[in-house]
Amino acid sequence: SDAEAETVSDITSVYRERLRSLSWFIKCLNETIARMANAEDDCTGHFWEARFHSVPLRTETAVIQAMAYVDLNPIRAGTANTPEDSDFTSFKSRAAKVTQPSQVGQAIEALSERRELLRTAIKPKPLMAFADEPTKHPSHRLPIGVDDYRVLVDALARCEMPGKHGKMTDELPSIIERMGLSSEDWFKSTTRSRRC
């Protein structure tokens, strides 16, 4: 009666408050995703716990290290043999000198068409220019030349990483040869970019 009505009123006001709260919605969404991910991975705990890290990239060196790490993920996973064959990486897009929409943009479009992803008007941003590439915004450049970055990634791809089974074989020619560049061209471009 009166006690029951008061209880229902209290419960209703709590749920009304929760329905207006974005934080509560995200909490519920995160819990559902965490349960599905934990069932897939056969583990327990919070979804973001020990699986993903958010690390601020405070120096130019840290930015280059993060780029190389991401570009080498397909090789470390054993799904690609060379960095230029690694699907959905900026390295492949840059190596191919892609003029059409990026692979990432094409993947987003495909997911949208299959209704697996909500359609969005946001287009992926173009790749940031290297130190020796022309750009509309000279202050927005990566702190390394494109050829230096290629050689760096090529060298790192040949290194074995603890806990990762993939690496590029040492028998493959250098990235300079694979991309049809000569050592002389590479030397000129890297020394010129350093002078600039």
Write up what this structure looks like.
The chain has 196 residues and is mostly helical. The chain is 52% helix and 0% strand. It is elongated, with a radius of gyration of 24 Å. The C terminus is likely disordered.
Topology of this structure?
Elements: H1 2-19, H2 22-41, H3 60-76, H4 90-95, H5 103-113, H6 146-157, H7 175-178, H8 183-195
Radius of gyration: 24 Å
Largest sheet: none
Amino-to-carboxy terminus distance: 83 Å
Helix content: 40-55%
* Proportion of residues in extended strands: under 5%
Query: Low-confidence segments, ≥5 residues, pLDDT <50?
Result: 189-196
Query: Mean pLDDT across all residues, rounded?
Result: 75
- The ordered H/E elements are HHHHHHHH
- Give a count of the beta strands, DSSP E runs of length 2 or more: 0
Q: Write down the oligomeric state.
A: single chain
- Alpha-beta classification: mainly alpha
Number of helices: 8
Shape estimate: elongated
Keywords:
196 residues, mainly alpha, 8 helices, disordered C terminus
Could you give a quick summary of the protein structure above?
The protein has 196 residues and is mainly alpha-helical.
